[in-house]
Amino acid sequence: MVDRTLLSSFAALSFFITSLCDAGLSLGSPFSESMVLQRGVSVPVWGTADANTLVTVRFGAQAKQVQSGADGKFVVALDPLDASKTPRVLIVTSGADEVSIGDVLVGEVWIASGQSNMEWPVSQSDDPARDQLEATNATIRIFKAPHLTASSPQSSVPGAWTVASPSTVGSFTAIGYSFAQGLSKTLDVPVGVLDLSWGGSRIEPWIPREGFATLREWDRKIEAMDRSQKTWRELDGSTIAQLLNRAESHYTRQKEDFFAATLGTERGSTEGFYKPEYNDAAWATCTLPNMFGSIDPSLAAFDGTVWFRRTFTIPAAMANTSLRFELPAIDDSDVAYVDHMRLGDTAGDWEKPRAYRLASGLSAGLHSISICVIDASGNGGFAKDQPMRIVREDDATQTLSLTGAWKWEKGGNVPRIAYPDRFDPLKEPNVKFESPMAMYNAMIAPCVPYAVQGAIWYQGESNAGEHAEYALLLKALVDGWRTVWANPNLAFGNVQLAGFMAAAPTEPVQPGWGSIRAAQEAGVDAINREHRGAAGLVTAIDIGSSGDIHPKNKREVGNRLSHWALEQVYHASTGGWAGPLFTSASRVGPSVTLRFDHASGLTTRGGGAPSGFALAGDDGVFVWADAVIEGDTVIVSSSTIANPTQVAYAWQNFPETSNVVNAEALPMYPFRSALKP
Q1: Strand duo 191-197 + 140-144: pairing
Q2: Helices 174-187 and 554-568, interaxial angle, to 10°?
Q3: Is the Cβ–Cβ distance between 296 and 352 less than 8 Å?
Q4: Counting C-beta atoms within 10 Å of the first and last residue's C-beta, which end of the chain has fewer, N or C?
Q5: What share of the chain is helix, strand, coil (3-state, %, to 5)?
Q6: Which of the listed residues 410, 435, 462 is the one where a domain comes to its end?
Q7: Half-sphere exposure of 581 (CA within 13 A, CB side)
Q8: What's the confidence (pLDDT) of residue 1?
Q9: Is 45 left (phi over 0), alpha (psi -120 to 50) or beta?
């Protein structure tokens, strides 16, 4: 039985450690060596000191004082600063304590947030050697926060500023770095980027409580989260023991159901790929551990099961004693067999190395091992550079390597079903990867109220299929950030999702990513209705990859975002940041005339006929349509539809034929619209 006093002891220890860390003088997380301060606005400098002591902040010719509160907290506001490339020192003193921060510049500061396409580093993008060669602008700095979650807003995050250089730029957010380059070149001021991003994240974990307060439909969800937090804090030992037993039983049933549904009719299971006598002579060979894409290009975008087999020989020194099979982390799920026996399984934990125990051991001699890897999305497989071996449990010096040559064969596609959820009553609720507010609380809240100009955002892949709510959540995100920063005009640049998945030449209009792109546009429009021009949507529709959810041309995405910011936020001329944006359609007989904003010099990429347009009639079935550019309009028609009722453009997951651009070579935004009779 778990004693509640144990939890109390942990809480007391945590409080004691926190108190020790907070004793004396310390500053907020973003205040560290090589930081960039925002020009032209009041700059808050905050932290903690001994209670009720005088705190002095000195920077340049300014010296500001304030008394810390009874809790030791203080905030000092520096007067607006001019941009400066000259490194200076920020000095904060309180009594005998002093914190000195060197190499401080003043310029423009932005947040870069979202999921993996924002976090994607320069080193894995197009032409990283070029970026390394050109990374000589030491006035560009990036603050990177680690991946953390929390159930309530935190006061610190262990991030650090890094100065751009050939040796450091490879780890920078590629989009954030390109964006900073664009601002720096035109504005000629230092640029700092707070990289607060996390691959695979949904939008809800980034929204603060203040943002959810604008969504009435979330009231009950947030109240339920608060209740679960309160209940967890009040658990006693007896209740915890009961919950542990109940949770383990529930998880076991869920996992059994998961694998039954996933593998019940799957080819490898029904044909017995795991049986030692199965003839795998026709299977391909590979080297493990490796990810699917490195094993075979055909597996890079494959979602389903892939089976792996090999034989191994147990030496006499490891025979008939308990063995531990250590495998790398497997993306996403797996079932492992030794001979005819099911050795172990893991459902949906793609970051956890496997350790399957065989207490009965194996006889000396030849045996077989089979592993079924179940990948639900992205690139599946085995994490590299992790152990893949058999270990004798009572003598760890006795090991047998499983790395090297394996046989492999595709199984089949699997249904997309939820992973079993292991409830741990000892684990604090509301801190999961997908928990609303969890990433905001741990990664962004510690950076509030650091003075920033705005934010750039690339996210939506993990919320695809939930477009009906996404526009509301996007506005709630921005409303929440503007509230906590006390800045109703906080600028916000959003990236519309790039093309992805297999091209569909026979489906002019597809369900899927077209709808989430429309939700992104609707969210930005809703934000701009309150603060015109403070939000912008740049599209990456033309730079996607059918087989890679992470298109490598991040430089162009950052460039488009910088052009948006320069024109809309800084009122500088760059030649344009937006492609043709659909505004209206009028129908005369079978022909439809389309009108756009940002349509000067309307043409096509490559100079061919306009393509990517589709029309539907009363039956709602879309067909590809012919299109002609006339000035700043496009005339669309189809010989098979006399009375079109709907028109669409680039409304596909990967719209490979869509080719219309404006004079700045910026692509037309996807759209779909009903037509009036």
Answers
A1: parallel
A2: 40
A3: no
A4: C
A5: 25, 30, 40
A6: 410
A7: 15
A8: 29
A9: beta
